[in-house]
Structure formats: C-alpha cells, structure tokens
C-alpha cells in the first residue's frame, strides 16, 4: 500500500519527461534558428552567444599562448542540421558541450599526438550517448548530426572564455600532412 504514491509519482515523472521530449523533438531546425536568433558560424552550423562572464583573467595569469586577458567563461547555443557540419577547428581553451534537442551529435576529436576519439552527444545513454562532454584545449575537433535528416541543438561553454583570436579553422592539406591516418575524416569534415 505504501508504494502506490511513489509508483504514481514515477508514472507522472515519466509522462512529463515524455511530453517534454515530444515538444523538443516536434520543433524544426528553422524554429530554433528563428526562436534563438541563431546566426551562421564560420566553422559551420548556427550559434548565438548567451553568456559572457563579467570577470576576466589577466594575461599574466594565463598560459603563454594567450595574447591578452580573457573572460572567465562564455557560452553559446549551437545548432547543426542535415548535411551541414562543424569543420575541424581548435581552441586554446577547453570547450564543454551540452545536448539539448534533436538528433545526437558525433564530435570527432584528434589529439595533438594524433590519437582519435569520438564523443556521442545526445539523450540516449543506452546507446552510449552523454548529455555533456569536454573537448580539451589544443585538440582538433569537428562535429556532425548523426541523423542527416534531422538537426541537433546543443550548447557550448568555453573556459577561459571564447575569443576569435584563440580559434583556428583547420586547413585540409595541413591537417592531412599532420595526421595522414585520419585523411578520410579530415577530407570529409574540412572546407578548404
């Protein structure tokens, strides 16, 4: 008898979670682009900056590769759709990805030593997907939507905060020369 209220609560929670998933999945990529005021990103996809820390880190307190002070953290919404992809690029800061809606995202990561790893960002832990994952500073990474008929909405938090001075878009020929073992992937996920 005492378990019935808890079973009812669990049923209500499952129903609410299911309804929330349906609402998120029923929206189109264009809906999110319009609703969140997303704009085209140089690496591919769409973004909108949602947060810029008011606190900054002095140049002297940062590693030598930073050319000036940086904000403690920044955050964006990021959307990919269909065949569009986020081309290989790297940052001088760590980037934490957060999954929100749509299809899962595959984030391809090439470490400076050439090691490859793949992040499955999404809402299905039974399929090995995670809601959050970090890409370490200095790694080359690219991403694409797993289901090319769909879209993915994510968030990216960068610390120290994002600055285009710390962003490097990969050049196909240079990356292939550095990492010939990943030629096919690099050729598929670069634009030059």
Notes on the protein architecture:
Strand 8 and strand 9 form a beta hairpin. The chain has one domain: Jelly Rolls, CATH 2.60.120.10. The protein has about 190 residues and is of the alpha+beta class. It has four helices and 13 strands. It has helices spanning about 5-25, 30-35, 170-180, 185-190, and strands at about 40, 45-50, 55, 70, 75-80, 85-90, 95-100, 105-110, 115-120, 130-135, 140-145, 150-160, 165-170.
Task: Give a quick rundown of the structure.
The chain has helices at residues 4-26, 29-35, 172-178, 183-188; strands at residues 39-40, 46-52, 56-57, 70-71, 74-81, 85-91, 94-102, 105-110, 116-121, 132-135, 140-145, 151-159, 167-169. With 192 residues, it is α+β, with helices and mostly antiparallel strands. The chain has one domain (28-188): Jelly Rolls.
Features:
192 residues; Jelly Rolls; globular; six-stranded antiparallel sheet; five-stranded antiparallel sheet; alpha+beta
């Amino acid at each position: 008898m005492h378990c019935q209220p808890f079973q009812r609560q669990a049923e209500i929670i499952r129903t609410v979670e299911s309804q929330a998933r349906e609402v998120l999945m029923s929206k189109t990529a264009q809906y999110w682009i319009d609703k969140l005021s997303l704009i085209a990103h140089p690496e591919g996809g769409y973004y909108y900056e949602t947060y810029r820390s008011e606190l900054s880190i002095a140049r002297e307190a940062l590693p030598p590769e930073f050319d000036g002070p940086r904000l403690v953290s920044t955050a964006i919404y990021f959307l990919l759709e269909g065949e569009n992809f986020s081309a290989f690029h790297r940052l001088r800061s760590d980037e934490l990805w957060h999954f929100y809606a749509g299809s899962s995202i595959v984030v391809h990561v090439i470490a400076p030593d050439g090691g490859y790893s793949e992040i499955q960002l999404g809402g299905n832990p039974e399929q090995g997907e995670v809601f959050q994952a970090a890409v370490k500073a200095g790694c080359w990474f690219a991403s694409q939507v797993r289901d090319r008929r769909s879209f993915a909405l994510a968030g990216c938090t960068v610390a120290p905060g994002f600055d285009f001075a710390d962003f490097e878009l990969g050049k196909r020929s240079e990356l292939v020369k550095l990492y010939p073992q990943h030629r096919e992937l690099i050729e598929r996920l670069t634009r030059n």
